[in-house]
Amino acid sequence: MSNVFIAFQNNEEARPLVEAIMTDNPAAVVVHSPGLVKIDAPNRLKILRATIEAQTGRPYDLQQLHLSLVTISGYVDEDEEQFSLRWNH
Fold it and tell me: Given a cut of 70, is residue 1 above it in pLDDT?
């Protein structure tokens, strides 16, 4: 099994994203560095628009996550409802 990861700038816009990701991916691990938040997950990581909206209490367009995105590892699958990373094995 290989890990996928996503990293964001450590800023106010990314905090609800990190909280939502951890809600939807209980096996994920958050690593905080100066200016950066990296989330590692075994094999797959999913980001659900509905979870972010529940965290923030307002509508959220998943394209907004690209504003804080630093890097990713894994194959990307995205639509209006979800953004996911995984490895094809």
Answer: no
One-letter identity of residue 12: E
Q: pLDDT tens digits for 50-62?
A: 999 999 999 999 9
Domain residue ranges in the chain: 3-86
- CATH number for the domain whose boundaries are 3-86: 3.90.56.10
Q: Is the pTM of this model over 0.85?
A: yes
Cβ neighbourhood burial of 56 (10 Å; 0-12, 13-18, 19+): middle
> Which tokens sit at 5?
């990861």
* 82, HSE (Cβ side, Cα atoms, 13 Å): 11
Q: Kindly report the number of other CB atoms within 10 A of residue 75's CB atom.
A: 12
Cα separation, 37 vs 13, whole angstroms: 12
